[in-house]
Amino acid sequence: MEEMETKKGFKIYSWELLLLALMQSGGIIYGLFHYDGFHQVIILIAIIYNTINCYKNALTREGFEEQQRLSEIQKASAHARLGKFAFMDGRSPIVLIGLGYLTALILPEKLKWMAVAFLVAAIAVMIRSIGDNIQKMDEETRLE
What we know:
The protein is mostly helical. The chain folds into two domains: 1-59; 78-144. It has helices spanning 15-33, 38-59, 61-82, 92-106, 113-143, and strands at 4-5, 11-12. The protein has a two-stranded antiparallel ribbon. It starts with a strand and ends with a helix.
């Protein structure tokens, strides 16, 4: 991504991350005005953490370079695990959650456990992906 310098010397390293952070800021404001209980506090904390990271990665060189490095590690890890289906690595939890939702809508009450199975599979895929990325980062730091 090409960096852009504004009039005051302020650099934007990633417009996509900046726009994402701005949208998440709107979600935070909405969540603060439509407070619905303790579970929403947990969601707001997660969104605030992610928003701060997005701003850091979009507006600082160090954050942007770190995000690019982690992205390359994730791509290499996905290619090593999935081969030619590596493009599905980031999408597989979304696909599994969608299948779980459709299963919950379509199947009768006795078979609702299948929807839960899809959701558990999505969580397992996400946890494995995180573990693979951590392992890949450890290997990279040992090589340096």
